[in-house]
């Protein structure tokens, strides 16, 4: 981590951390974001924000205007996904417009469980799966051949 000292005015210093790679990772996540559950106009607005580097992701969930709980996890949206799906409105502007890309019916947390586990626990789980596979035997225990003779 490098520190750079910038002189703004006399006797005023601004310390700025230069961490290489963080901005690239953040911009890749923003570019990969799918804007679903919004109308055509709101989708164009969000794409413009991404294109001209004005899009800022949320740091913590916002409050939904319908259910009044902190469940809004998408930037610039005013409604959570379940409320927007239930009312069939745009999650960003709240108008009853045609939604361009509807929300997925699957829950958001469909990621692989292994991503959240520590590597040692993940390895032990894999070893257990391999051991369980070794115990499966395909032995035919029927005595049908002996009875036929």
UniProtKB/TrEMBL annotation:
This is Chromosome 8 C9orf85 homolog.
């Amino acid at each position: 981590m490098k520190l750079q000292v910038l002189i703004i005015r006399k006797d005023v210093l601004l310390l700025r951390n230069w961490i290489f790679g963080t901005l690239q990772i953040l911009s890749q996540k923003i570019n990969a974001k799918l804007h679903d559950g919004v109308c055509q106009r709101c989708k164009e607005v969000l794409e413009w924000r991404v294109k001209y580097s004005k899009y800022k992701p949320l740091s913590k969930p916002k409050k939904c205007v319908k259910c009044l709980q902190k469940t809004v996890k998408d930037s610039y949206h005013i409604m959570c996904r379940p409320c927007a799906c239930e009312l069939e409105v745009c999650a960003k502007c709240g108008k009853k417009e045609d939604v361009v890309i509807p929300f997925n019916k699957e829950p958001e947390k469909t990621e692989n469980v292994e991503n959240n586990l520590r590597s040692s626990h993940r390895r032990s789980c894999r070893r257990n799966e391999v051991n369980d596979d070794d115990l499966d035997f395909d032995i035919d225990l029927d005595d049908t051949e002996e009875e036929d003779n």
